[in-house]
Amino acid sequence: MLTLHGAGIGKGITIGTAVVLQGPTMDIPEYMVSDDEIESEIARFQNAIQAARSQLSSIRDHIPSNAPSESAMFIEAHLLMMDDPLIALEPLETIRNEHVNAESALQRHAESLVRAFEEMEDPYLRDKKTDINQVVNRIQQNLLNVDQEDIDGIEEGLAGKIVITTDLAPADTVLLKHHKMSAFVTDLGGPISHTAILARSLKIPAIVGLHGATRYIRHGETLIVDGKRGTVILSPDQEVLDAYHDRYGKNLHIQQELEALRTSEAVTRDGQPIQLMANIELPEDIEATQRAYADGVGLYRTEYLFMNRQEPPTEAEQFSAYKQVVTALKKPITIRTLDLGADKQVDGGRPNLDTTTNPALGLRAVRLCLHEPGLFKPQLRAILRASAFGPIEMMIPMVSSLDELGQVLDLIEEIKQELRKQGHAYDEHIPIGGMIEVPAAAIAADLFASRLNFLSIGTNDLIQYTLAIDRVDDAVNYLYDPLHPSVLRLIKMTIDAGNRAGVPVAMCGEMAGESRYTKLLLGLGLRNFSMEPDSLLEIKKVIRETDLTTLSDFIREILTCADPNELRMLVEKLDS
Ligand code: PEP
Ligand code: MG
Predict the structure, then answer these.
(1) 337 lines ligand 1 (CB under 6 A)
(2) Whose CA is nearest to atom 8 of ligand 1?
């Protein structure tokens, strides 16, 4: 029995047998072509690209109708990369000028492209090299007539199996899901890669970046994949297997119990109603929000509208997306203005690609928006115009300075006047809120509350900035601690400041969707939780089991506890 660790995706556990897809190993041949062979070599290259394009298009056309929209988006992104001159045209010049074969011409350009991406500071862009490799591999396979990925041929045997492979392209992830694989493990890849994002939304438990997976795991071996812990247990002994079967069984049982709560109210035992909202990324996510019976959307991350495209969406396009969301849900929708930069880089938004030193502390979110009115104004206009069609609230990410907030509020007033003059309808009293995700904003939450209609605590960034740990840097992940006394104090300060000012305080960071913290957050005074729709029932269950009147002693003890282990035990006790 051996346990391997990687980056876990999803919360599920899968027990099954391994199918190791070695992926065809390709030795890229290198040889010279004579003058009279050049045209046929060029034709061979163009045919390979054409074949690769049709394979991807065919996969895209066979995406199951219930698959999330990202599935198609990622495949489109690969199709677009195949049109990139560096991949589609420059190798032709190399064949012509240097008289080399198509495979080696392509490889040379691919390698320099990958090197350029590898040197990028930003993890999101660094991850793009994976996409380039996947696209180039597909073309090489066509040049070399290698069987496609070994995947297309093993469709039958895949149901219920755990796929182990060096790397998976988004297109293959969709294909494998279609063939009912139950989980996958890859040697390469990071937790914010396209494949990982896709696995999360397709609800496939996965472990990525598990170096050596294809070396250590044998075909047919029994495995336990634990997406929550990021572990794969190889050939587990009976005791471990029984324990996991138990956990797996309990998970199913809990799931059934949760289902029964779908339409129940989120009210504590002592009668305090709690608002449960959903975090969404795309208009399509409204369906999951409705299924979860959420009270509304507490965080609509608009960055996703700007991804995988060359130009930012127009005002009209954004207006239509926001209107679609609010008219479909008919419940309050909190639209967050653009939070680009740092870990959220996109092509279309032209964020701070040049910032190399410290992007998380640089020109991101509201700073970038104020710096680029051409990006910000169309979004503010679109949000305001959509507010005429339903209860929309506007939320500003990463506020840190009152001056900056003042500039945003002035700009919103200016745009309202402009819209009025142009005869566009909008909600004159649209609530404007701010995300509390920088310690400065939490410490001075009273000052921010005096200028805003609501606050929402973004714990993902608040923890990163309070503890000075880059949220996407593996090396310091172990320091990411929602229970750090400084974090708990900042959360409490924000909630208290909101209460004193009569301004509602929500939480929309990941912490709000983690059931082990629910009682703690209720005890700290939180009454509005926003999370990915799938976590909502679990949180509702805890809320319904909680009596607020019993929490205060625990909370006092937790807030004054000096020993981290004791504090953790107190939170566990509270949760039990
Ligand atoms: C947060 O920082 O907690 C948050 C909700 O925003 P994001 O994760 O999009 O930065
Ligand atoms: Mg944030």
Answers:
(1) no
(2) 460
Q: What is the band of 94 on the pLDDT scale with cuts at 50, 70, 90? A: very high
The per-residue pLDDT for 106 is 92
* Best residue for ligand 1 mutational test, from 437, 469, 528 (most atoms within 8 Å of Cβ): 437
Q: How far is the CA of 273 from the centre of ligand 2 (A)?
A: 26
Model pTM score: 0.69
Q: What is the pLDDT of residues 40-82, one digit of tens each?
A: 999 999 999 998 888 888 777 766 665 656 667 777 888 888 8
Cα(431)–Cα(114) distance, integer angstroms: 45
Task: Establish if 563 belongs to a structural domain.
Answer: no
Which residue segment(s) compose the domain that 497 sits in? 435-508
| Catalytic annotation, pick one of 78, 109, 194, 369 | 194
How many other C-beta atoms are found inside a 10 Å radius of the C-beta of residue 515? 16
Give the orientation angle of helix 123-143 with respect to helix 102-118, to 10 degrees: 170
What is the distance in A from the centroid of ligand 1 to the CA of 301? Answer: 9
Domain count, the chain: 3
**Range 178-193 average pLDDT:** 79
Query: Which CATH number fits the domain that encloses residue 250?
Result: 1.10.274.10
Question: What Rg, from alpha-carbon coordinates, does the chain have?
Answer: 26
Which residue is listed with tokens 């910000």? 376
Question: Residue 335 belongs to a domain with what CATH number?
Answer: 3.20.20.60
Per DSSP, the chain holds a count of helices (H) and strands (E) of 23, 16
The verdict on 102 and 141 lying in the same domain is yes
Non-local CB neighbours of 219 within 8 Å, separated by 6+ positions? 18, 19, 20
What are 166's two structure tokens?
């060096």
Question: Do 19 and 165 lie in a common domain?
Answer: yes
Same domain flag for 448 and 425: no
Higher pLDDT, 448 or 88: 448
Q: Which of 166, 168, 225 is nearest to 20 (CA)?
A: 166
Q: Is the CB of 461 under 6 A from ligand 1?
A: yes
Asked about 245 being catalytic, the answer comes back as no
**Is residue 351 domain-shared with residue 241, that is, in the same domain?**
no
Q: Kindly state if the Cβ of 471 falls inside 6 Å of ligand 1.
A: no
Distance 507 CA to ligand 1 centre (A): 10
Nearby residues for ligand 2 (ion, Cβ within 5 Å) = 437, 458, 461
Considering the domain architecture, whether residues 399 and 353 belong to the same structural domain is answered as yes
